[in-house]
Amino acid sequence: MSDSALNSQDLNIEAAIEAVLFVASGPISLAQLTEATSRSHHEIEGSIRELERRYQSQHSGLRIQRHEGKVQLTTAPEMAPLVENFLGLEATARLSRAALETLAIIAYRQPITRPGIDAVRGVNSDGVLKSLLIKGLIQEVGRADTPGRPILYAITNDFLQQFGLNSLDDLPPFELLEQEGVSPEEQPLLKD
Question: Sign of the C-alpha dihedral, residues 103, 104, 105, 108?
């Protein structure tokens, strides 16, 4: 075991995780964090939950984002205008109603095929899917075991960042929206 691995045992586990997430170029798995910090999976998971709680309770400019078993350190959604201004970025282009509708369908029903999306929307979604793929908000995650083997789509980490979500668990419960009779225009993901 290297000196740095031995020394990581003496470090505060939350600080060690925070440091690794800060320098990571993208989302990393819990196994990678376990290996980097020489701590157990259980310790890593508990420490990540503690970081999430701390960031929320202290109104921090940082958040932990979870997706597909990986975690990433991101800026808080409410900091987006400040960060965009500092970096000289133009405001993010607005998505069309069709794009938002398609994203909501994919987010709640993933993985889903284009015919599945078309059935919910009632119109062809080829162009919208192509646009969302180019923007990196959705990805192809495989093929369905049905005739024709249609492509299955799911959301990406970029989707979570764009909408200020830490994970898909942050989406309002779909069943609740249906039970309360909330129209698509009133649902948070579908607002322009």
Answer: positive
